[in-house]
Amino acid sequence: MLLFSTILDIRRTLTKDKFIELVLQWNRENPHKENIIPDIKWDHERNIRFGSRDLWLSIEEYRNKNIISVRYEKVRRDGVIWDTDYIMNFDEMRLSIQLDRRYTEGALNLDPAFSTPHFITTLIDNNCLRDDRGLPILHEPTDITAENISMLADIINGKSHYSLPVVYVSKTLNGQNPVDIEILAKRLKGVAHVFVQKQRSSNYRLRELCGEKNEFNGAVGIYYPNTAVRNKRFLYRKYTGEDSDLLDKTARSVIRYCSSQNLPNLYTWSGVNYSLLSDRMVSQMEKREAAETEVDKVYDTFDDDFRHMQEQIDELTNANSALTMENQGLRAKLCDSDAVPVLTMGEEDDFYPDEIRDLVLKTLMNGLDSAAAGSRKAHILNDLIENNNYTAAVEERKQKIKTMFRGYKNMSGPLRQQLIDLGFEITEEGKHYKLTYFGDARYRTTLAKTASDNREGKNIASTIISNML
To answer: Which of the 8 DSSP states describes residue 234?
Structure first.
C-alpha cells in the first residue's frame, strides 16, 4: 500500500555522485539505529547493493534515460515490508520519493503522526531543492506579515498557484497558534508551504483583500495547486491550547493529496527496473544474433547478464505477488460489507461517537412523519432509518440538559461536573460563566453565576438544545 509519494524539483548543481552520497548520508543518520545498514563503503559504482536479505539498499543506473534509481527495503519480523524509493531523473532534474508498506492490513490507515521522509530534510539542508515559483521549500513555517499578505490573498482568491499545496494557519481568538506550527511544518516538509498568521490584527486587511474568504479564529485552510481538487478548511475547536487533532487532520489531508497524484512510469522503482530489464534483454538478443566468430565469449557474457536479469525478474515478481495479496485483502474487506454509503462526510467531525449519524437519522425521522403514507419518499426514508443504527444519543443529551438546568440557581459542583462530562468547557467572565461546546468557538453561550429568576435555567437549556444539540 502506497503511503506517501511526491515529486520534487532539484537544482542542477546536484550530480549523480552527490545524490548517491546524500542517500548514504540519510542511511547513516537514520534516527532509528535498527534501520541503519552498517559499514557501507561506496567506491562510486552505479549498480550495487548493500545490506542483508531483510535490510538492504540497492542502486541502479539507467543510462539510456539518465536515471539513478534507489530502493531501501526493510523486512520486519512480523512479515511487514517497508520500501522507500528515490528515483532521480537527471534529464528533467526531478526526484520522485515513494514510501510503501506491504503484507499488512494496517497499511490501509495512515499513522496520525506520519511525517514525510527525513531524506527531504537532507535535501533542504544541502540546498538541493529548487524554489516553487519563487517560494523556497522549507521545513519551517513562514510568517504572514504586512509585507507578504497580498501573496496570501492572491492564493485564497485563486489568482496564484504553486506546485505544492499551501497551508494557512490563522491565529485563535486569544492570538495563539491553534496547532504546533513547527511540528506541522516538519511533518509537511517538501510537500506543502506552511504559512502562519503572525498577528491576529491582520484579519481586517486580509478580509478586505479576499472578500472575507480567509480563515480566521484558529481555522486552517489548505489550498491545492490542482483546481479540480476542492480546497479544505478545518475549524479550530479548543477554547485554549493547541489542538493535536487539527494538526493530524491537516497533515493527513495534504499527504493524501500528494500520494494520489499519478506518477510517470519512469518515476517508480518498478517502472525503471522493467525498462532497464527490457533494454538489457534487447541488447543481449542483438549481441546473440550478431555473434558468429566469438560465440563462446558472447554466451559467457550473456549468461552473466542473464543471471542478473533473472534476479531482477524474481524481485519484481515478488513485489507483484505482494500487491496481488494486498488487493485480495482489500477485496475481501469490501465483500464483507454490502452497505453502500449514501452520503459523503464533509468537514465536520463527530464531537462524540455517532453524533452526526444520529442527527441525520433524526432529521430523516422528522421527514418521515410528514411524508405521505405509501409514497416513494416515505419508502426511501424508512429504508434508510431501518438500515442504520439510531442510538438516540442526541435525544438523551437534550433530556440531560433539561434536567440539569431545571430550577437553576447557581453553578454547583455536581452541575459543573455534568457539563464537563457532556463536553462543555467552562470559563468565568465577570458575573457570568461562558460555556463552550467541545472547544468549538461557534458554539458558545453565557450563563449568569446567580439566577435572576426561575426562567434562567429553562432559557439556557433551550439555547443549548437549539444551537448545540
So the answer is: E
Q: Which residue shows C-alpha cell 495547486?
A: 225
- Fold classified for 142-259: Glutaredoxin (3.40.30)
pLDDT band at 328 (very low <50, low <70, confident <90, very high): very low
Q: What span, in angstroms and rounded, lies between the C-alpha atoms of 161 and 151?
A: 10
- Quick one: residue 235, left, alpha or beta (phi over 0 = left, psi -120 to 50 = alpha)? beta
User: Is 175 strand, coil or helix?
Assistant: coil
Q: Which helix (H) or strand (E) holds 59?
A: strand 55-62
Taking the domains of the chain in order of start, what are their residue ranges? 2-129+263-324, 142-259, 393-468
The rounded radius of gyration (Å) of the Cα atoms in the chain is 29
Taking the CA atoms of 324, 325, 329 and 332 in sequence, report the sign of the dihedral they define.
positive
> Rounded to whole angstroms, how far apart are CA atoms 39 and 272?
27
Q: CB–CB of 250/234 below 8 Å?
A: yes
Interhelix angle for 269-290 vs 295-335, to 10°?
Answer: 150
Question: What is the phi/psi pair of residue 123, to 5°?
Answer: -65, -40
**∠288-290-296 over CA atoms, to 5°?**
55
Residues 269, 320: contact at Cβ < 8 Å?
A: no
Per DSSP, 92 falls in state T
Instruction: Give pLDDT tens digits for 1-23.
Output: 778 889 999 999 999 999 999 99
Distance CA 76, CA 82 (A): 8
Q: Mention every residue, 6+ apart, whose C-beta is less than 8 A from residue 63.
A: none
Write down the pLDDT at residue 264: 86
Cell reading at 35: 534501520
* Integer Cα distance of 342 and 464 in angstroms: 30
